[in-house]
Every structure is written in C-alpha cells, then in structure tokens.
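User: Teach me something about this protein's shape.
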Amino acid sequence: MVSDRLYPSGANAPTKLSRDTPVEWAVSPGRVPYDAAVNVMEARAAAIRAGDAAELVWLIEHDPLYTAGTSAKEQDLLNADRFPVFKSSRGGQYTYHGPGQRVAYVMLDLETRGRDIRSFVYGLEQWIIGTLDAFNVKGERRSDRVGVWVDRTESGGPSREDKIAAIGVRVRKWVSFHGIALNVEPDLSHFTGITPCGVSDPGLGVTSLVDLGLPVTMDDADEALKAAFHEVFGPTLDAAPPSW
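Assistant: First, the predicted structure itself:
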C-alpha cells in the first residue's frame, strides 16, 4: 500500500490513531545500511502481527543512497551512478536518504488503530507538521503532491514551495513499515540525481531546517519528533535500537 495522496488536503482524519500502550522508540547511532534496515523492518512487522513484539519507531541515518518506490519511473533516475539505488516495497517514487536526514521507520499495528490507511497517512503528515511547528516552521499538505511542504514565496515574487519531508509506507497484514524522512541538514545537492517523488514543476524544490536558516541539530529534531508523535499516536517507551 502506498503513500501517494490518500487523504484530501485539509480533511479531518476520522479514525482515532492513538493508543495508550507505549510504542518502543529507538535511535541508532551512526549509519545503518539500507538493506539491513529493511530486513529488520520486515522481521519486526511480522513479529508484531504474530503478537511477539511491540510496536516500534526506529530513528536512523543512512549513507547517501536512492530508493525506488513501487511507483518509480525510470526517467526520474537522473544519475544512476551517483549513489547506490535500491528497489523498495514502499509506496511512492524515487527518494534520497543520506546524512543529515532523519529517517523514522514506523512499525505500528493498524489493526488496533482503526484499519484506515488514509487516516494513518494523514496522521504521519500531522506528525511531521507538529514537529516543524516546534521550530516555528509551517508545514503544509498538498492535495496533488506527497509529503510535507514549506511555502517560500516572497512578497511580490514568483510562487515557490519546497519539500521538507517525505512519506513512503508499506502496510502488510495491517502492520506498517517504512515511514518518513525529515530533512534536518542533508546535502541538498544530492537530490539532483533524481526527480524527487516525480515532482519537477518549476517553483518546486527541496529544503531542510538548516536551509531555512534554523540551527537545528539532529538531537533537537528527535526531541520534536517524539513530542509530536505523542500528540498523534500516543506514548512512547525508550528502547535499545535493533541489531542487524
């Protein structure tokens, strides 16, 4: 199941996504190989469905790489030799992961959270928007574009909007995996090797918290992510990161 626009912009999510049972919250130091992360997610999702493991949000960074979601178009890979390219079971098109970008892999039991994919994606968007609000950044949904956007149009100037966070999820037997990617301080030039999420319209680009002039560290972003997660999905419990 995909992260393409599943819920109308500005609509109210009808399903209560929050639960009282804490979600394990783990942060991995250093860089986690992408294929290892996928293996961990696959195994954890299966264990959650079997009742053998708790829900988990796993915060990591990757070395520079591109991933191709289930809707990826070959022409959107502009430089195949720049970084490793991985096919992904998540929804969406091409995206970039790398240092300075906080990737949050979200393994939640949607069986107990309303069985509503549209509401879940809406909740992920709201989580990002709440995180950005902690830094006085107004994140916005767009009905025709995936992710969370920042309006950077200057008074009297041409329209400009930049994407600050991507969403790409997979749901199997009502357990989610993959998740979100928030640009804290990545090298934005690395996005030029792809057409990010298939969006190449003039006036649309990519930004980060630091690019917006905010001296935000990864620890700052993690703290804001956790607080905003509580508002949408419920409490968390700090846990050791998965091994691979």
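Now, about its shape. Residues 34-50 form the longest helix (17 residues). The first strand starts at residue 23 and ends at 27. If you'd like, I can walk through any region in more detail.
User: That's plenty for now, thanks!
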